[in-house]
Target: Autoinducer 2 import system permease protein LsrC
Amino acid sequence: MSPHRRNPVLAFLRQREIPVAGALVLLVLVTFAVNPLFLSPQSVKDLMLNATIMIILAVGQAIVVITRNVDLSVGSIVGLVAFGTGSIFDVAPGLPIPVVFLIGLVFGAVLGGINGLLVSVARVPALVVTLGTLYIYRGILASWAGSTQYFSGDMPSAFGALSVDTLLGIPYITIMAIVVVIVAAVVLGRTRGGRDLYAIGSDPAAAQLFGIPVTRRILTAFLASGALAGLAGVLYASRYNSVGALTGDGLELNVVAAVVVGGVAIFGGSGTVVGAGIGAVLLSTITSSLTATRVDKFWQQAIVGVLILAAIIVDRVVTLRNIRKLRVSEARDV
Model:
């Protein structure tokens, strides 16, 4: 084994999350240099709040993408759960907030489970399934909500306070997002079930031969994605002034972009939820940065597109380099 491979510093720097984190730090520093108010206490709080929903959704999406699938219905699930949260408080204003969170998680898990059953049991491609449920769930929301909107004033003040109150300067809902990232990272990295997801993404057929319960694991991944989208939907109702038929519309594309930019391979088998979370923060910060520097928001889409292409190219280059090294090592052994 070469000295470079034993060097923990070099090993750390080779992590996929490092370039993304570096880009985030550089973006913040450049924006601060142009507009010092960008890092004022209130601006920093707003940055964290703006990234919270995206972080949670990116974690759920990363779990699915690691298995070589994708969930395009998360934006619609967020909309359904967010509007459902407003409906619950309208019908039962005295309902304990933890119960509302539990209902949101279960509601999201059921919607995600429908995706998972169609993908894992019926063997329908995830892209087709979730594209269909994206429109089905959105149609249900449009029919359910109609022109009705629930505003922050219609919900308990303690619920809205989750997005206002802080602990050590960090909003409560952002702390929830951080906990989600930590728990998901531990599960994926330290449990057999988590490692199975990577094996499935790397080679589903080989995973099946090795006795990995592929069907159950993929279903679990979609359940997790749906549950986290449900959590994001409840937090959305707390974070924003109103929820209605258009809540969460188009959110799924930004979530997929955050996951890819965060270093999760779109073809599955590699990446981390930490990287996905950093990617979510980076994309959210880009919007705030452009606003702070008075750059036309049109450029946000172009920048995100460039980041996605760059992430895919880097992933491909790294994959080819690893394959080349493996072949060289095998040739030497022979």
Q: What stands out?
A: The CA atoms of residues 99 and 279 lie 31 Å apart.
